[in-house]
Amino acid sequence: MDSLALMRLLQLASPSLPVGAYSYSQGLESALTAKVVTNEATAHAWVHDMLHHAVALLEAPVFLRAHAAWVSGETVRYHEWNDWFLATRDTAELRAETVQMGFSTVRLLKELPLLAPADLSVLQATPEIAAPVALAAAAAAMGIPAQEALQAYLFSWLENQVLAAVKVVPLGQAAGQRILFDLAGAIPALGTQAAAMQDDDISNWTPGLTLFSIAHETQYSRIFRS
């Protein structure tokens, strides 16, 4: 990967990317209310399990498949994975989250000189686009290889989740950095795992997350949108 592609990758993974990731906790806020997450150790366990089960077994392999479909120009296949991922969002909040972030990503791509007009029209013509699928297209358009793009996506997800924990548990900044430092070490292996997965192995079997997400939809007091 050349230096320009690296700069584009850092931009894509930056918390300052205006796609709204900072406004979601993905069930963490409900876990805090239920006292499942109460301190650094339990926050570490929560983020670890989310990364290894909810993200690595579903979002990561879908990201790679969407990236490959975009690079090869398989528009139908790209849309099939987008629709498939949307169907896995089993609560209203989780579905709204990925659609909002996907929409914001496409809007950002329109403002940046990254996509040819024909490619941009493909994304804009998609009624609802999932965040990992939209970001895979952005990475492919930037010429970023699939594994590097996926690792940046996973790190960005991890950093946002840790930042949410720092805000709501609450944790000190040093505690958040300890969690980030420890869990980020698993990302390269998770990328390799995702690349080796067969289609039938992709799963969103995370019933605990589903229940916490449902609870969050009617939670009395909250600061996050999921």
What does this structure look like?
This protein is mainly α and 226 residues long. It is built from eleven helices and no strands. It starts with a helix and ends in a 9-residue tail after the last helix. The mean pLDDT is 92.
Order of helices and strands: HHHHHHHHHHH
Kindly name the structural category. mainly alpha
Q: What is the C-alpha radius of gyration, as a whole number of Å?
A: 17 Å
| Residue runs with pLDDT of under 50 for 5 or more positions | none
For the report, how would you describe the main beta sheet?
Answer: none
Assess the beta-strand content as a share of residues.
under 5%
- Counting DSSP H or I runs of 4 or more residues, the number of helices is 11
Calculate the mean pLDDT score and round it: 92
- Bulk shape: globular
Q: Give the strand tally.
A: 0
| Terminus-to-terminus distance | 35 Å
Give the SSE map.
Blueprint: H1 3-13, H2 28-33, H3 40-72, H4 75-88, H5 92-111, H6 117-124, H7 131-141, H8 146-168, H9 173-184, H10 187-196, H11 207-217
Summarize the structure.
This protein has eleven helices and no strands. The protein is mostly helical and 226 residues long. The model has no long low-confidence stretch (mean pLDDT 92).
